């Protein structure tokens, strides 16, 4: 469960860059409580410095309630991810204990009601309303910035990869799962603690050209021509480069 990200420390213009590696280590336990199974996660972080050729432990704020969703993108020495904040860590399991009444609001009329109430308690504990954020690790200060809102509304099924534009801007692609429509957004300002966005273009009517959404692809942007190149696989698992632009250009 280890993952790594590469970046560099920003110093004055005349000094050489100090490159660093961020290491994230995650442990998972499965425990049982009075209602069902609970998944417990712990994460530890380390920094490797190329200048000192050594590792050190660092204590960071993103805890078990944040899950990294996309591959990282390096920009201006920092690293960006799309992350999701979980509302809980419970695994869905059918559960009914007729010999023991769990505390809940409402009145139990019979065993069937008790079973229903126990299921509702379990459903409430496993329900998730995940929201995705942009998260940056600042290699100069060696800490994460706050979760940053994305410039569009989306669903969990939508595809949202990240990219960079000439090491100056961050690009976000959002492809809708049902219509395959794409929105391309470019950052006007991107820092560990703040971001602002403008829409580059929207590609519509892709259902006549594509039969599936992009899932694990990467992309890059030609900002001047308003064209993107997406690398992914087709239905026959062939590696394909799709060139997509405005007004149905494909």
UniProtKB/TrEMBL annotation:
Domain F-box associated beta-propeller type: 1-85, 124-250
Domain of life: Eukaryota
InterPro entries named in the record: F-box-assoc_dom_typ1, F-box-assoc_interact_dom
Pfam families: FBA_1 (PF07734)
Matching NCBIfam families: F_box_assoc_1 (TIGR01640)
Protein's recorded name: F-box/kelch-repeat protein At3g16740-like
């Amino acid at each position: 469960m280890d993952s790594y990200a590469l970046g560099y420390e920003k110093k004055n213009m005349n000094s050489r860059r100090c490159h660093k590696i961020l290491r994230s280590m995650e442990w998972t336990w499965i425990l049982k409580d009075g209602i069902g199974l609970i998944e417990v996660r712990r994460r530890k972080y380390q920094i490797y410095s190329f200048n000192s050729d050594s590792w050190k432990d660092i204590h960071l704020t993103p805890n078990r309630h944040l899950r990294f969703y996309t591959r990282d993108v390096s920009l201006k020495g920092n690293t960006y991810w799309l992350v999701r904040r979980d509302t809980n860590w419970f695994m869905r399991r059918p559960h009914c204990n007729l010999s023991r009444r769990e505390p809940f609001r409402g009145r139990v009329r019979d065993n069937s009601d008790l079973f229903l109430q126990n299921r509702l308690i379990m459903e409430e504990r496993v329900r998730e309303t995940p929201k995705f954020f942009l998260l940056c690790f600042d290699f100069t200060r060696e800490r994460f910035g706050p979760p940053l809102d994305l410039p569009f509304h989306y669903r969990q099924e939508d595809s949202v990869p990240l990219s960079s534009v000439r090491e100056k801007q961050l690009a976000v692609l959002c492809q809708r799962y049902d219509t395959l429509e794409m929105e391309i957004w470019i950052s006007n300002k991107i820092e560990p603690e703040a971001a602002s966005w403008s829409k580059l273009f929207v590609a519509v009517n892709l259902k006549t050209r594509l039969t599936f959404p992009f899932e694990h692809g990467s992309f890059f942007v030609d900002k001047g021509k308003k064209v993107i190149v997406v690398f992914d696989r087709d239905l026959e698992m062939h590696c394909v480069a799709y060139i997509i632009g405005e007004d149905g250009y494909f």
